[in-house]
Every structure is written in C-alpha cells, then in structure tokens.
Amino acid sequence: MTDSTVLDDLEARGLVQDCTDREGFAARLAEGPVTLYYGCDPTADSLHVGNLLGLLVLRRFQEAGHRPVALAGGATGMVGDPSGRSEERNLLDDATLSANVAAIKAQISRVLGRDVQVVDNRDWTGEVRLLDFLRDVGKHVTVNTMLGRESVKNRLASEHGISYTEFSYMLLQAHDFLRLEESLACQVQIGGSDQWGNMLGGVDLIRRVHGRPAWALSWPLLTAPDGTKLGKTTGARIWLDADRTSPYQFFQHWMNTDDRQVRQFLAQFTLLPMDEVDAAVASHEESPGRREAQRLLAREATRLVHGADDALAAEEASAILFGSPIDGVSVAALEAVAREVPVCEVARGDLAAGVPAADLLSSPNFLTASKGEARRAIAQGGVYVNGERVGEEHVVSADSLLHDRYVLVRKGKRSFGLVRLEA
Predict the structure, then answer these.
(1) Cβ distance 405 to 333 under 8 Å?
(2) Cα–Cα separations (whole angstroms), residue 6 to 51, 68, 197, 354
(3) Rounded Cα gap, residues 157 and 154, in angstroms
(4) Phi and psi dihedrals of 395, rounded to 5?
(5) Measured in Å, how far apart are the chain's first and last C-alpha atoms?
(6) Which of 283, 173, 217 has its CA nearest to residue 29?
(7) Phi–psi pair at 44, nearest 5 degrees
(8) DSSP codes joined into one string, 22-81
(9) pTM to 2 decimals?
(10) What backbone torsions phi and psi does residue 159 show, to the nearest 5 degrees?
(11) Most confident residue range from 5-14, 106-115, 148-157, 159-168
(12) What are the residue ranges spanned by the domains of the chain?
C-alpha cells in the first residue's frame, strides 16, 4: 500500500518549491507505487548535507511505499554541472570518479538501506555514440530553450562564460531521465531548485520521444540564516563521510543550528512526524537556552547518517566536552573524544609508577607548551583529571584509568586532552 499524502507532507516540511502538474502528480501517486530518482554527481569522495536533503526526500517516498532510485553520476560528473557555479569545474579523471562513485554509493545505502537501487549513468552513457546522441536527444531540444535556462544565462553573463562541455550537461541529464524511464519505468525526478531547468529538460524529452507523462519536483536550496547557499564548495563543508566530518563534528553542526532555522531543519533533516516537530519547537521556545530542539535535531540527523551507536557516542562526547560529569562514560564516547582533542600516549609501566600531572600536561603537543606553564595552571586551580580539580602534587596513576585505558584531562574551561595507554 502506498501513502498518497506524501506530497502534502513534503509541502508541510517546506520541501516543495516547484512541481510540474501538481494535480496530475498527486493523482499518479494515488494510483499506486511510482518510481522516482535523485542524482548526485561524484565531484568529491563524499556527499554533504545538501545531498542528505535529497536522500531523505527519497526515503520519505520510500517509506510511503514508492520505489526510489539513487543515481551516482559518474558520466555527468565527468562533464560538470554549471548550475549554481560562476566558473568551470575541474574535470576529474576516470580513476578518481570511480573511487568517488564507490564512496557515495556506500553513503546512499546507509541512509536509504541496502535494498535501494543505486545506478551509475556511466553504465548507459559510455556506450552512446556521438552521432546517435545528437540524433536521438539533440534533435528534440532547441538551443533557444537551452539558452533560456537560468544556469546557462547566469554563466553567459559571467566573466568566465560557459564551455560547450558544461552547456551539454542538461542534455546528458535529460538523457538519464529518458533511459531510466525506459528501463525502470521511472516517472519522477527530484532535486534542488538549481536543477529545475535540467529536470524540465528530461520531462520534455520523455514527452517528445515517447508521449508519456513524467514529473519533476524541486525543493528550495539549503541556505544559512543570512541567505547564503550551503554545500561542499560554498558555505559550511559538512560531509557525510566520517573521516571528513566526524560524527561528533556532525552532531555539533546541528547543535549549533540557529533558533530561526531549528523548526525547518527538524522538519527536513529528520523523519519525525510534523506534530512531533511542532511539539519539540514549542517546548524549545519555552526554554531556548537548553537547546533541546537542537539536541533532538542533532541526535536524529546523526543517527540517520552514522547509525545509532555513533550518534549516541557523539552525543555523550559532546556532553563531556561541554562540562558534563563523566560518571558512567562509555568507551565509545571516549574514543569519539580522542578524535577531537590532543592525545598523550603513555606506557602502562609509566602509569603504574605514577606520572606527575605537570609532566603529562607538558607532554609534546598536549595541553601546555612547558612544564612551568603546566605548574602555573595547576597552582591556579585550573586543571582537572577525570572531572576533579587537582593540586600541585597530584600524580596520575593506573587508578585514574577509565575503562582501564583512558584519563580525561582538562585545562581551564574548554581545553581538553586525553591520556591513553599505548596499545
């Protein structure tokens, strides 16, 4: 059974900016499962939060009983999309693109589940001959139409202009939609509003070639409170890959959400029902200093991207690094902390004998530049070991170990370090 109210839900979440034939699309959704796709060009080895928005729209359709397809654009990534760009993209070689495609396929599967169909447009574009492409696709699209697309007009007006390579991008994307319609009965393409012109090209091409209906749906571009676009090349670089943006950093990104945007992001970056979103925002407005709405957003978004275990560890690590007691701290949280703060490795034998706190603090690349600075910090009452203030004669020993391996050290209010036994 499909849920035909998914379009209403998307509109309630602010995720519909444009939709071709909205009434016809709603009627098609009411008939039964529809296949739809969202494409990501592998210009890097990780997707970012802008792509997460698209993947979660796919997931909303998936949970409503429809059939999502995620496209990794290995072919279009070779060309470069001019949308939202003021200058030409750097073209990537085949080996880099292949590695990027493999990486983002894994990220797509984490968000949508391993049952989702993930395709690469190199699989059908690489075999197409130029003359066939010009005859089968190019003849259906006028240059006047292409010049009228916003992305092309903006580039033509810029000092850099636009190359024929990028000018042809919209034809390749329209061809993708046509091929997916032919092979998978895909009738819908979704994407950000900067893709609207490209998506219309695919809808029109399917109509001209086969006389069959197709639809496009776009959402507003993700922006900061001041209206600037966010993404991997402009604004904040918040990646879905844990090596680029750790789960802790990802969690903190959402914790830092401006109050003006917390309802929007709860609606768009979580799968919470809208009544729960509104209840969370109402509670937040009664006591905004507690940032409970941001915490819920961070918890849910991190869980969707990194899984429940990493989300819990990131939340616990966040609490530790913002001064919460460490009673019952988990190993996973301490390992998460180790990715974010200086780490001092010590041998078990050294710790068994006891190491003066000043010696630990002044270890190379740890918390102080010298032993004298460490002693002054301790004398001023600004050094804590496992949350307890220590004096000038304090010795860190094996008894201080958390989970038989870690000691958490803090200098001042926010300068943390982790002592860790050598493996």
Answers:
(1) no
(2) 20, 13, 24, 62
(3) 5
(4) -120, 130
(5) 53
(6) 217
(7) -145, 170
(8) HHHHHHHHHHS--EEEEEE--SSSS-BHHHHHHHHHHHHHHHTT-EEEEEE-TTHHHH--
(9) 0.91
(10) -70, -20
(11) 5-14
(12) 6-219, 247-337, 341-421
- Mean pLDDT over all residues of the chain? 91
How far does Cα 304 stand from its chain's mean position?
A: 10
Task: Give the pLDDT confidence score for residue 64 in this predicted structure.
Answer: 95
Q: Rounded CA gap, 248 and 336, in Å? A: 7
The fold of the 247-337 domain, in CATH, is: Tyrosyl-Transfer RNA Synthetase (1.10.240)
User: CB-side exposure of 199: number of CA atoms within 13 Å?
Assistant: 23
- Amino acid present at 258: D
Secondary structure E strands in 94-253 = 117-120, 186-192, 215-219
Assigned superfamily of 341-421:
RNA-binding S4 domain (3.10.290.10)
Give the model's pLDDT for residue 81.
60
Residue whose tokens read 């926010």: 414
Measured distance CA(92)–CA(98) in Å, rounded:
10
Q: And the tokens for 211? A: 């006389």
Chain-centroid distance, C-alpha 325 = 30
Q: pLDDT tens digit string along 203-236?
A: 999 999 999 999 999 999 988 887 776 644 444 5
Which of the 8 DSSP states describes residue 322?
A: T
Q: Are 236 and 253 in contact (CB under 8 A)?
A: yes
Backbone angles phi, psi at 323, to 5 degrees: 95, 10
- Say how many C-beta atoms besides its own lie within 10 A of residue 354's C-beta: 14
| DSSP state for residue 338 in the 8-state scheme | H
- The residues, ordered by sequence, that sit 6+ positions from 207 with a Cβ below 8 Å of its Cβ are 213, 214
* Max CA separation in the chain (angstroms): 84
Which is nearest to 416 in space by CA: 357, 351, 361, 358? 361
Strands 215-219 and 186-192: parallel
For the chain, percent of residues with pLDDT exceeding 90: 76
Burial 19-33 (b: 16+ CB within 10 A, else e): bbeeeebbebbeeee
**Cβ proximity of 48 and 233 under 8 Å:** no
Token pair, residue 316, equals 């616990």
Nearest 5°: the CA angle 384, 363, 323 is 25
Backbone phi, then psi, for 307, in 5-degree steps?
95, 160
Between CA 323 and CA 328 the distance in angstroms is 14
**Pick from 123, 125, 56, 71: which is nearest to 304 by CA?**
56
Q: Which CATH superfamily is domain 6-219 in?
A: HUPs (3.40.50.620)
